[in-house]
Amino acid sequence: MSEKQNYKSGFATLIGRPNVGKSTLMNHLIGQKIAITSNKPQTTRNRIQTVYTDDRGQIVFLDTPGIHKAKNKLGEYMVKAAESTFSGVDVILWLVEPTTFIGKGEQHIARLLSGTKTPVILIMNKIDTVEKERIAECMDAYRKIYPFARMIPVSALRSRNLDQVISAVMEFLPYGPRYYDEDTITDQPQRQIAAELIREKALRLLEEEIPHGVAVAIDNMKERPDGSIMDIDATIICEKDSHKGIIIGKGGAMLRRIGTQARREIENMLGMQVNLQLWVKVKKDWRDSDYLVRNFGYDKKEI
């Protein structure tokens, strides 16, 4: 076989409960920050495609929202976005935490997967948080609930065993040409990544009950004619007047913190100076409005 005939390409989806480290794993596999991360569940709301390319082949990873019991229209969108990736991919990566207790959330995912013929690789993440001896026990517990094609213990945060993940995924991909140029790392438009980076900073800096009710809309994103600066106007949308006050903060202090941290990351992404202007608007109960959920980029028809 020629080198071209030996080349593989295909799709792998990352699934799991909220907050198990899917976005962190994807960012570390790709070697660049694409998906936003925080220690709050439901950080990822859309399916995000990133691309890993090497001499063996090309893997298109789909990072999905955490699978959970939906409580509103936004939640329904997120669960549908995750579950719709089960078919049409070559391999499923199911991320779990290292525990011998398998709760309702994981049992639910095992049931959802029971109808799929797609090979499932168990990725036991956060192994740096438990004793080494415990990892085998945890993997044994999962072995009893699903016939996994492979089981790999990793630490996404510390980049441990990630090469094993890439090798295992490559095993299950069909032979064929790549889908994207070798320098492509994501299908996400820059506007969408910029909006997500602003939302990430809000998630990290704001109080517990507020972040779930926050969306970000990019109103304007335009490079100056001389190419020196990117001007971005963005609006943070929240659900209550009281939340608006907290997001703005005393004398605008919180909004400035969100803006400063987001601007640095957007500058890293774009490789140029950014002038970021933020506003805050209240859209009461937007997560339960089909129209507003669609308006902020979460459209079920696009899944």
Question: Could you explain how this protein is built, in words?
Answer:
The chain has 303 residues and is an alpha/beta fold. It folds into two domains: 8-172, 3-Layer(aba) Sandwich (Rossmann fold), CATH 3.40.50; 190-302, 2-Layer Sandwich (GMP Synthetase, Chain A, domain 3), CATH 3.30.300. The protein is built from nine helices and nine strands. It has helices spanning 22-30, 73-83, 104-113, 132-143, 162-172, 190-205, 241-248, 253-270, 290-295, and strands at 8-15, 48-53, 57-63, 91-96, 120-124, 150-153, 215-223, 229-238, 273-282. Strands 2-3-1-4-5-6 form a six-stranded mixed beta sheet, sandwiched between helices. Helix 6 (190-205) packs antiparallel against helix 8 (253-270).
**β-strand amount:** 15-25%
CATH topology of the largest domain: Rossmann fold
CATH superfamily placement of the largest domain = P-loop containing nucleotide triphosphate hydrolases
Largest sheet: 6 strands, mixed
Outline the secondary-structure elements.
Layout: E1 8-15, H1 22-30, E2 48-53, E3 57-63, H2 73-83, E4 91-96, H3 104-113, E5 120-124, H4 132-143, E6 150-153, H5 162-172, H6 190-205, E7 215-223, E8 229-238, H7 241-248, H8 253-270, E9 273-282, H9 290-295
Parallel strand pairs: 1-3, 1-4, 4-5, 5-6, 8-9
Antiparallel strand pairs: 2-3, 7-8
Keywords, separated by commas or semicolons:
Rossmann fold; 303 residues; alpha/beta; 3-stranded mixed beta sheet; single chain; 33% helix; GMP Synthetase, Chain A, domain 3; 9 helices; 9 strands
